[in-house]
Design goal:
The protein is built from 13 helices and twelve strands. The protein is of the alpha/beta class. The chain has three domains: about 140 residues, Globin-like (Orthogonal Bundle), CATH 1.10.490.10; about 100 residues, Translation factors (Elongation Factor Tu (Ef-tu), domain 3), CATH 2.40.30; about 140 residues, 3-Layer(aba) Sandwich (Rossmann fold), CATH 3.40.50. It is globular. It starts with a helix and ends in a 7-residue tail after the last helix.
């Protein structure tokens, strides 16, 4: 429970903290990795290099401080963070490390503005949030253990099959190697894959499960990530999976996690799944789950991709499109010369407001979307402009949500 003086002081310093939030988080990571290098294994080097991790933490700090007197607004954010922490194996004894370096970074950046009273309030606020997360993570860990076939930590799974999905995407079918069943999961969740990489220490990676629950296997579909800017690291684990992991090999895998899951509508309203590139993976799990259970309401699935060379799941999408109540559309923004004439796509162009207005039942549908940053920003902005309420927009974004929401129009 936050002390009233803590709430008052945090509200007073929020504008100053927000103005320096990214500077604070950069200083925080520098300090923590220098003084506690053992925690660096939990952080993705590519996200650190791009600044995405620093921006995400800055956004989380600003959201917490801004809602310090209305913590119910943070329920969704707490769940997202707790699920991510459990996917990586974060434990209660990690929280004092983070708290120490975060407070030190705030003092370093804000200087004399951090009086003893401010320092005490920030520490109080951090400890309350930390306990909320620790309690929720304990419940998730317990649920993982008690789910039939479930576990905590990592478990050896065997690569039963490798299936190329496109020039850049390969699916890996993972089965139990010890005869124990795999646990059920919610469509849209992910698992964590860990390797002792032969050349470079690296953090675990999260990959969405791309097939429906109940198959007896986990399927992850991995895009080979290449560096787009000089000096930035390529996808170390994605390239290792593509180049080195063959059928019959053992992979260390964490249990399913994640809060981006599908909620079948109670009133038979349409469901629209919008996928950009490899963002199709959680949405494929959702769509195949809905199809398997005979969805009685309209389901719209859009896959936006560059062209047929890189698009994954083309045959699975055609099969889904043949099902009752399913409407599937493939849209390329850089099609090959014969992609349209050969029927590999249904249209060409971006997923903009005009396309969404014309193709989706946007007035009453539930929207689920996932994809790269430009796709997510455009979709979120278009749906907002079309009047789709935030509670009808469900999305997974591997970065600060503010990058999406801040670029959407404000609709009175």
């Amino acid at each position: 429970m936050l002390q009233p003086t803590t709430v008052d002081i945090v509200k007073q310093i929020t504008p100053a903290v927000a103005a320096e939030a990214e500077t604070i988080t950069r200083a925080f990571y520098t300090r923590m990795f220098r003084e506690n290098p053992e925690v660096q294994a939990y952080f993705n080097a590519a996200h650190q290099h791009s600044g995405g991790q620093q921006r995400a933490l800055a956004g989380a700090i600003c959201a917490y401080f801004s809602n310090i007197d209305n913590l119910e607004q943070l329920t969704g954010a707490v769940e997202l963070i707790a699920q991510k922490h459990c996917s990586l194996g974060i434990q209660p004894d990690h929280y004092p490390i983070v708290g120490k370096h975060l407070l030190a970074a705030i003092k370093e950046v804000m200087g004399d503005a951090v009086t003893p009273e401010v320092e005490a309030a920030v520490l109080d606020a951090y400890q309350v949030l930390a306990q909320v997360l620790i309690d929720r993570e304990a419940a998730i860990y317990q649920q993982q253990r008690e789910t039939p076939g479930g576990w905590n930590g990592y478990r050896d799974l065997v690569v039963e099959r490798r299936v190329p999905e496109s020039e850049v995407v390969t699916s890996f079918y993972l089965r139990s190697g010890d005869g124990r069943p795999l646990p059920d999961f919610a469509p849209g969740q992910y698992v964590t894959v860990r390797f002792d990489h032969p050349t470079t220490p690296t953090s675990p990676r999260n990959y969405s499960l791309s097939d429906r629950p109940g198959t007896g296997y986990f399927r992850i579909s991995v895009k080979r990530e290449r560096s787009l800017t000089e000096g930035a690291p390529s996808g170390l684990i994605s390239n290792h999976l593509h180049d080195a992991v063959q059928e019959g090999e053992v992979v260390q895998v964490g249990p399913p996690c994640g809060e981006f899951t599908i909620e079948p509508p109670a009133d038979a309203r349409p469901m629209v799944l919008l996928a950009g590139g490899i963002g199709a993976t959680p949405l494929m799990s959702m769509a195949r789950h809905l199809s398997h259970h005979g969805a009685k309401w309209p389901v719209y699935f859009l896959h936006a991709a560059r062209n047929s060379r890189v698009q994954a799941f083309a045959s699975e999408l055609r099969e889904l499109g043949s099902r009752d109540n399913f409407h599937v559309h493939v849209r390329y923004d850089e099609p090959l010369a014969d992609d349209l004439t050969e029927g590999r796509c249904d249209s060409m162009g971006r997923v903009d407001i005009e396309f969404l207005r014309n193709w989706t039942p946007y007035r009453d549908a539930e929207f689920y979307f996932c994809g790269p940053s430009p796709f997510m920003i455009e979709v979120h902005s278009a749906l907002t402009e079309l009047g789709v309420r935030p509670d009808r927009m469900h999305f997974e974004y591997f970065g600060p949500r503010q990058e999406i929401e801040s670029k959407s129009p404000v609709i009175a």
